[in-house]
Amino acid sequence: MTRITGAAMVAGIVGHPVAQSLSPVLHSAWIAAAGLNAAYVPLAPALDGFAALIKGLRGGVIRGVNVTIPFKLEALVVADEIGERAGMAGASNLLLFSEDGSIFADNTDGLGMLAALRLQAPGFDPAAGPAVILGAGGAARGAAAALVLAGAPEVRIFNRTLDRAEALTRDVDGPLRVVDVADALRDANVVINATSQGMGGGGGPDIDLDAAPDTAVVMDMVYKPLRTAFLERAALRGLRTVDGLEMLIQQAVPSFEAFYGVAPPAEVDVRALALETVGETA
Ligand code: NAP
């Protein structure tokens, strides 16, 4: 095991709660495999304690933090500079601290989603046709921004609460459109569940996948269970599927590079480690 000294590079994840996060498992495995003098720690401030914690970490005390629920919006407020991806998404999952005290906000959730699509649906091209996003929360915003930046000709938003879908299409700049469930899937290139439906089991989004073309790729951001009912329905329909665990792993890759200055070692099977941690098999 690599020794952690007083000169270690430190980063972490801030959430409330944070105990369920898989990020420490992923980053710690990569740190060990790369032999880095580094640590990645979970931090769980009180709900009103995010800004104070971040203030204390400024100025190179640590390299940076990933940010998870419920602080992804507040992460933008504490930042001095906001990157394009985070700005478009209206949320940040990665804060980087400079020694001069400034904070840069980035968003790697969308990058992770696109990388997972390319890995598990080889040949997937976000620019090849309309994307359909189910949901209008933080994850849907990140997905919409990433798809627009990747050249999707149209991004359709379907959400239970219409107001939230409309707010998303106003806030994210690009070819976005609020759709009705009836015509959402026609000509769809990709269909993404960005709602929390299906988390911990249950039926998932109530949408008829028969309306999607045979070429559509179906992705579920929910990763517990790994094979959600939504993905099972898509597979039964003969569509290619992409799971939320791969997205989680892929959003961690650019974070690791930003914190520690090297790419995560490819030989570590972090997917198997993550599955073991949540008590599932692939
Ligand atoms: P959020 O901001 O709370 O948004 C939740 C979304 O789910 C909203 O659109 C909400 O619709 C919808 N929803 C919740 N319950 C519903 C129901 N019973 N019927 C219909 N719609 C329902 O959450 P988030 O941060 O966007 O996260 C959404 C999901 O993505 C979570 O499961 C999260 O774990 C997952 N996620 C995964 C990754 C990954 O790396 N794999 C990354 C980020 C998020 P309303 O607007 O109508 O309430």
**Tell me, what is the CATH class of the largest domain?**
Alpha Beta
Total beta-strand segments = 12
User: What percent of residues are in strands?
Assistant: 15-25%
- Average of the residue pLDDT scores: 94
CATH superfamily of the largest domain, called what? NAD(P)-binding Rossmann-like Domain
| The CATH architecture of the largest domain | 3-Layer(aba) Sandwich
- Helix and strand string, N-terminal first? EHEHEHEHEEHEHEHEEEHEHH
Structural overview:
With 282 residues, the chain is an alpha/beta fold. The protein has 2 domains: 9-107 and 249-278, Leucine Dehydrogenase, chain A, domain 1 (Rossmann fold, 3-Layer(aba) Sandwich), CATH 3.40.50; 110-242, 3-Layer(aba) Sandwich (Rossmann fold). 35% of the residues lie in helices and 17% in strands. The chain has 10 helices and 12 strands. It has helices at 23-34, 50-57, 74-78, 84-89, 109-120, 138-149, 162-171, 229-236, 244-260, 270-277, and strands at 9-14, 38-43, 64-67, 81-82, 94-97, 103-106, 131-134, 155-158, 176-178, 190-193, 217-220, 240-242. The strands form 2 sheets. A 6-stranded mixed beta sheet has the order 2-1-3-5-6-4. It has a 6-stranded parallel beta sheet with strand order 9-8-7-10-11-12, sandwiched between helices. Helix 5 packs across helix 6 and helix 5 crosses helix 9. The longest helix has 17 residues, at 244-260. It starts with 8 loop residues before the first strand and ends in a 5-residue tail after the last helix. The mean pLDDT is 94. Residues 69, 109, 112, 135-140, 159-161, 164, 194-197, 199, 221-223, 244, 247-248, 251 line the site of NADP nicotinamide-adenine-dinucleotide phosphate.
